[in-house]
Amino acid sequence: MCAKRVVVGLSGGVDSAVTAHLLKKQGHEVVGIFMKNWEDDDDDEYCSTRQDFLDAASVADVLGIDIEHVNFAAEYKDRVFAEFLREHRAGRTPNPDVLCNAEIKFKAFLDHAMRLGAESIATGHYARVRLNEASGRHELLKGLDPGKDQSYFLHRLNQAQLAQTMFPVGELHKTEVRRIADEIGLPNAKKKDSTGICFIGERPFREFLNKYLAKNPGPILDDRGRKLGEHVGLSFYTLGQRQGLGIGGVKDKKGQRGGGEHEPWFVARKELDTNVLRVVQGHDHPWLLSHRLSAMDLSWVAGETPAPGALAAKARYRQADAACTLEAGGDAASIALSFPDAQWAVTPGQSAVLYDGDVCLGGGVIESAQTLG
């Protein structure tokens, strides 16, 4: 591999730190960039941007590389956060990490790195890029650590972006990344992995949304039409949600609760026209199970829609690949996926991502799903 000038996105976490180390060890000229993507509540107890930059700067010092602090907060607010709020107001549940990768980390950041004379960029994502010699196209592959694979969040990347991107830790398991960080004395070797959406941090989700979305209370009804309580606004709930509903069981005339006395309640439907939140008891209630979904706003890694047929898909990040059949939609702007095994709580706004083995093909935003009930 010939030496390149590589700009690495240093987040303050251990994965990007080891990414920079591995590239420098390979002989590349490495420059670090810390991306500031959120600044509305810099002084908030949940905002870790200041500490993350200090950690990134400490890593750069240990590795002997330069680091630049770049503010992409305006681009993030326009391209990612505004869409996040629009989707929630429409009753859907968006995945801002998918949009952040496509619009900020591999667009705004990539453009900035190229202006600095970079030949490639690198991040600490657990994924891999491979050039298919036969087709001449770049392929996006799953990371080798199945528990950390992040290809789902990267499925909207295109050929031009992948051609200029490196994912060194995608070849490793997380335990090996931690071992390397400890071995070379990185100050963040034992730093806890960040969780959740970057602009929300560790704070309660509803507490954050309260600052940006208006409440619009309405009834919570079960599948038999019985009123169980009041919701604060459909935007604040997602399908499959179990916590934070504020309801108990409802007994029928014989003293039995619908669905079983001890079964938990789950959000099953959001009826926007009547402002009704529907909940059901039991994880495997028919209203929570779907054999078919449709998706729009499509993006394909190879630049074209895969041929219809047998593939695998994820309808949300934290799930195993599920066997499916890709059907062409009514037009090129949509696809339909059918699953032999019912999928749980398929949620409009989330991404349906297709795989052929370890190869991530791309996907789209879930528009609707056909439930069993």
Describe the structure in your own words:
The chain is of the alpha/beta class and 373 residues long. The chain folds into three domains: 5-205, HUPs (Rossmann fold, 3-Layer(aba) Sandwich), CATH 3.40.50.620; 214-283, Adenine nucleotide alpha hydrolases-like domains (SH3 type barrels, Roll); 287-371, Translation factors (Elongation Factor Tu (Ef-tu), domain 3). Helices cover 23% and strands 30% of the residues. The chain contains seven helices and 17 strands. It has helices at 14-25, 49-63, 73-89, 96-115, 159-163, 174-183, 205-209, and strands at residues 5-9, 29-36, 66-71, 120-122, 127-132, 137-142, 165-166, 218-221, 227-231, 265-271, 276-281, 289-300, 309-314, 322-328, 334-344, 351-356, 359-371. It has a six-stranded antiparallel barrel with strand order 12-15-14-13-16-17. The protein has a five-stranded parallel beta sheet with strand order 3-2-1-4-7, sandwiched between helices. Strands 9-8-11-10 form a four-stranded mixed beta sheet, with no helix packed on it. Helix 1 (14-25) runs parallel beside helix 2, helix 1 (14-25) crosses helix 6 (174-183) and helix 3 (73-89) runs antiparallel to helix 4 (96-115). The longest helix is centred in the N-terminal third of the chain and has 20 residues, at 96-115. The radius of gyration is 22 Å and the shape is globular. The N and C termini lie far apart (56 Å). Residues 252-259 have low confidence and may be disordered.
